[in-house]
């Protein structure tokens, strides 16, 4: 799930990494050719990061995000995200990412 003003879709896949409080990821798919993010993991497990990606229109988009992880009954991770573009229209939105 993603807000209409977002570019992440069901075709977008993320590969996350964590080393202590450091978080980073690469992502691509759907309207996104390639993207990356970097940020921190708080003591309660919440994520704060900045991201940038190149979309199909060859535009570089940047933003920031706060993400709250939840472990689902099936053991998969779900990320509930509140984000804001730091380029373009500076609008805000929400995304829900689910581990595959």
List keywords for this structure.
100 residues, mainly beta, seven-stranded antiparallel β-sheet, 0% helix, 62% strand, N-acetylglutamate synthase, Avidin-like
Task: Please outline what is shown here.
By secondary structure, the chain is mostly beta strands.
SSE pattern:
EEEEEEE
Percent of residues in β-strands: over 45%
Largest sheet: 7 strands, antiparallel
Poorly predicted runs: none
Name the structural class: mainly beta
Number of strands: 7
* Oligomeric state as shown: single chain
Through-space gap between termini: 14 Å
Write the layout of secondary structure elements.
Elements: E1 13-19, E2 22-29, E3 32-41, E4 47-55, E5 60-71, E6 77-85, E7 92-98
Antiparallel strand pairs: 1-2, 2-3, 3-4, 4-5, 5-6, 6-7
Pfam family, one: Avidin_like
InterPro entries: Avidin-like
Protein name: N-acetylglutamate synthase
Structure write-up:
A 7-stranded antiparallel β-sheet has the order 1-2-3-4-5-6-7, with no helix packed on it. The chain has one domain. The protein is mainly beta and 100 residues long. The mean pLDDT is 96. It starts with 12 loop residues before the first strand and ends with a strand. This is N-acetylglutamate synthase. It comes from Eubacterium ventriosum. It holds the Pfam family Avidin_like.
């Amino acid at each position: 799930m993603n807000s209409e003003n977002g570019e992440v879709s069901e075709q977008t896949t993320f590969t996350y990494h964590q080393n202590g409080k450091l978080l980073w990821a690469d992502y691509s798919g759907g309207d996104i050719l390639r993207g990356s993010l970097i940020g921190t993991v708080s003591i309660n497990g919440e994520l704060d990061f900045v991201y940038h990606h190149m979309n199909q229109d060859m535009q570089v988009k940047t933003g920031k995000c706060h993400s709250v992880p939840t472990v689902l009954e099936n053991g998969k991770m779900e990320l509930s995200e509140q984000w804001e573009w730091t380029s373009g229209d500076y609008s805000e939105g929400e995304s829900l990412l689910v581990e595959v």
